[in-house]
Amino acid sequence: MPNLLLLSMLAAFPALSTDMYLPALPTLQALWGISVVEANMSLVVFFMAFSVFLLVHGPLSDRFGRRPVLLGGITLFIVGCGLCAVADSIVMLVVARVVQAAGAAAASALSLALAKDLYEGHRRQKILGYIGVILAVCPMLAPFLGGLMLQVASWRWIFACQGVLALVVLYGAVRLKEPLTEFTSGGFLAVMGRYRKILGNGRFMALTLAFSVMVLPHFAFIGGSPDIYITGFGVSEQVFGYYFGINALGIMLGSFACTRLTVSVSSVRVLFLSLFGVLAAGAALAVFDAPTPVIMAALMFCITFSIGVSRPISNNMCLEQVKTDIGAASSILTFTIFFVGAGSMGLIGLDWPSKPAFVGQLAVIGALAPLTILWVMLRFFGRRPE
């Protein structure tokens, strides 16, 4: 399996784990007699557990190698898929989702670490852009496939399908040649020392925290989209898949645009333009709301397109700040992104006067945080973060 395809499929594990069964959330609410908040716990707990296990897999891969940690993580994910498929209550589903999250965390963390291992500089940024394009296909197709599956089969088959797809990735991991030639040493205290060193890297942490806030509207939309479209606008599960696909299309086109724009325009300038794009679309959604599903989809497309443009640049900018302990640094970066995302998923489940407007407010916050950090670095430190 080509490295680019393997890295893309590894990075797609979080989307694969969530987007495909989003159309089934209203079905589970009716089947088990639970509220939106209770149903969303299967999303929130997944991302919280996912975030915690990211911090485990990164240092383990620095110590024992990328390949063995990857093989163990994917196998654990497949077990989690099986447990989700046989769940008979929301409690059992949430527990099974923790197992699934523990495995998915290995795939997601190591996709960034492997990108750092295998590619350098601008080439890495370009590869991250291509991964973003391929990665967007998963959330674009997954809700549609999930909705289609609900038309002909039980929701349980959604998780069975996830397990089968993970088997394909497991084959690619088996064929992967271990990229590390030097391994870290020591036990738990040594790992904590490495985390302390990375956490003390001010530029890395400032950029990581700022760019992680940018995902607030994206994850809030993922968690709230079934309630917004199916319950709020009254569209069918299958039509919901189309609207959600437009959102994913924005990520894909944005990532593709990034690979083209950065050839002739500086990465920092493209990053600023994309952040202003998130700010403008978020402000429009926050102020004017979304009276129709078409308007909601159009504004979310603008937000996700801009996030898609910025993500390869911001990820590469963060990774450029570290030279050693790449697995641990990748874990912190991915952990922060998904921990913030889990929080926004929990917030969107609350009883807001208008959930579309709340997503817009999160987009404004998500754009202002990195814009402020970048301005401070340029204004007071006199050079661009590369």
From TrEMBL:
Gene Ontology terms for molecular function: xenobiotic transmembrane transporter activity
Keywords: Cell membrane, Membrane, Transmembrane, Transmembrane helix, Transport
Protein's membrane topology: Multi-pass membrane protein
InterPro entries named in the record: Efflux_drug-R_Bcr/CmlA, MFS, MFS_dom, MFS_Efflux_Transporters, MFS_trans_sf
Entry-linked NCBIfam families: efflux_Bcr_CflA (TIGR00710)
Superkingdom field: Bacteria
A Gene Ontology term for the protein's cellular component: plasma membrane
UniProt KW Cell membrane keyword: yes
Subcellular location: Cell membrane
PROSITE patterns: MFS (PS50850)
Coiled coil: none
Pfam families: MFS_1
Protein species of origin: Pseudodesulfovibrio alkaliphilus
Domain spans labelled Major facilitator superfamily (MFS) profile: 3-384
Annotated TM spans: 33-56, 68-92, 98-115, 127-149, 155-174, 204-222, 242-263, 270-288, 294-314, 326-350, 362-381
Name of protein: Bcr/CflA family efflux MFS transporter
Signal peptide range: none
Family assignment from sequence similarity: Belongs to the major facilitator superfamily. Bcr/CmlA family.
